[in-house]
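REQUEST FORM: STRUCTURE PREDICTION
Request ID: SP-0412
Submitted by: Lab K.M.
Chain count: 1
Length (residues): 171
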Amino acid sequence: MDLFVNKERGNPGFSKALGAAIVVAMLVIAGLIYFIFTLPTPKEEKAEILQDAVTEGMPEFEEYTRDLVITNDARRMQEARTGLGDVVMKLSARIRNAGDRTLTGLEVSVGMVDTKNELIKDKKVLFVPKHYPKLEPGEEIDVSVSIAGFSSDDDRANARWKVTAIKFEEK
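STATUS: Completed
RESULT:
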């Protein structure tokens, strides 16, 4: 019995296995932090997607936007109030590519206008390729956008959909 009671023990403190586990955990956490900080921001990602896109102000922009038909769906327009009293508008539309080229990038400015047709609030949304990979010739897609931050006193008359950037598939 004395053999069990008087047996010398090793250092009860820090063990080598515990130290190795802590070092490995710290390396994994450092790797994750490095990975997260090297990811591109949404703004950088959007700029990369729309690189070489035809945007507003370019001479050929008007010609290309004639081939895009955006039909506002007023029946699916919804209004919701938040707990803070703000109003969120959910706007829906159908976008049709009436042209003969496949779209690989499509940015649309969606907003609400008042009865004087003045813009109250808008939001730019990258539908292709963020929500849909491509928009083939003759293809239609149903889209919806939520825009927050309206007050209950705002004169919200209608939704406005406006193409701001188009990128075509390279041949």
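NOTES: The two ends are 87 Å apart (CA to CA).
Reviewed by: T.R.
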